[in-house]
Amino acid sequence: MLHLRAVCPPDKTDKAVEVLRAHPGTAHLIVHRGVAVLPEGDLVEVDVAREAADEIVGALCTLQLDTSGGITLEAIDTALSDAADRAEEAAPGDGADAVVWQELIARTGEESRLNVTFQAFLTIACLLAAVGIVTNSAVTIVGAMVVGPEFGPLAAIAVGLVLRRWDLVRQASVALAIGFPLAMAVTLGATLLGEATGLFSRATLLANHQVDFVYDVGKFSLIIALLAGAAGMLSMTSAKSAALVGVFISVTTVPAAGYAVVAAVLQDWERCLYSFGQLVVNLIGIVIAAAVVLMLRRRGQRAGGTERPLSRE
Q1: Same domain, 53 and 174
Q2: Spatial CA neighbour of 67 closest among 113, 146, 8, 2
Q3: Which of 49, 137, 198, 288 is the most buried (most CB within 10 A)?
Q4: What does residue 3 show for φ and ψ, rounded to 5 degrees?
């Protein structure tokens, strides 16, 4: 279940209540008259089945509540209510399979912004990857995969391409285009310092057999990237968010960036080039698979007749 809050201008409250009351996928409808201050108006609260949320939000957007008032959604961890159970049973489909498009746009938009936190995580992930490479530690490489935040912008690009939200595509592309070079630059400085102090040498890199998969680009690199992108988008468009951890540790985006830096410092240009190729293949593969999954899910929603116009906000 999801909890929906809508701030309504007084002249639209009755229409909003009528929409919510008429839908079988709602429960616990509450109206607070005149409590909203900014913007002024009424507050309407209701619990909705996840599989009905997109349709309900679309109907409220046709009343322009997203521009004259406001609509928010939040997940309900536990709902002990026969009315809620009836709403979930009456709503078509299954909650785990439902796509709440506005939630997806908001989530990918938030996770694709270039900010200090995003850059810090990406930089730390690249540094971890470099340490894993010079210490021949596959465990550390996996740690770098988990820490890396790059799937957020990649998912945002896929969402933007499918929904023609070019603002998302631009925002995510900027995050990747600036974030990776900055993270690699910091890793370059740390690697140069490590080499100067004798922490590792070219012989160390040549002996790293356990982490050779990082730069070993090939057909399976693309296959893994496609599978990871598909799994990641399925996770983001459903209630199975825990599956994202598996996506993070299945692709070698950040480790490839770290390996390219270490190989460049040690002037192993062949491995540097292969690592960069691995990075590009993974980025492209993830976006392609995520976009295909999103298109299939949207086509299924259209076939079911439940697609609603998406707000640009």
Answers
A1: no
A2: 8
A3: 49
A4: -100, 125
On the question of pLDDT at 292 being above 80, the answer is yes
pLDDT at position 311: 47
Answer whether residue 310 is part of any domain: no
Q: How many domains does the chain have?
A: 2
- Kindly report the backbone phi and psi dihedral angles of residue 41, in degrees, each rounded to the nearest multiple of 5, phi listed first: 155, -155
> Do residues 126 and 57 both lie within one domain?
no
Residue positions counted in the chain: 313
Beta strands in the chain (DSSP E): 2-8, 26-37, 40-48, 70-75
Count the alpha carbons within 13 Å of 134 in the hemisphere toward its beta carbon: 24
The reply to whether the predicted model has a pTM over 0.85 is: no
CA-based Rg of the chain, rounded to a whole angstrom? 23
Q: Side by side, which strands form the sheet with 26-37?
A: 26-37, 40-48, 2-8, 70-75
Domain membership of residue 309 (yes or no) is: no
d(Cα 128, Cα 257) in Å, to the nearest integer?
Answer: 11
Cis peptide before 92 (omega within 30 of 0): no
Please say whether the beta carbons of 101 and 310 come within 8 A: yes
What HEC string does 71-121 produce? Answer: EEEEECCCCCCHHHHHHHHHCCCCHHHCCCHHHHHHHHHHHCCCCHHHHHH
Would you say residue 95 has pLDDT above 70?
A: no
Question: Is 308 a domain residue?
Answer: no
Q: In 3-state terms, the chain is what percent helix, strand and coil (to 5)?
A: 65, 10, 20
d(CA 99, CA 55) in angstroms, rounded, equals 10
| CATH (domain of 82) | 3.30.70.260
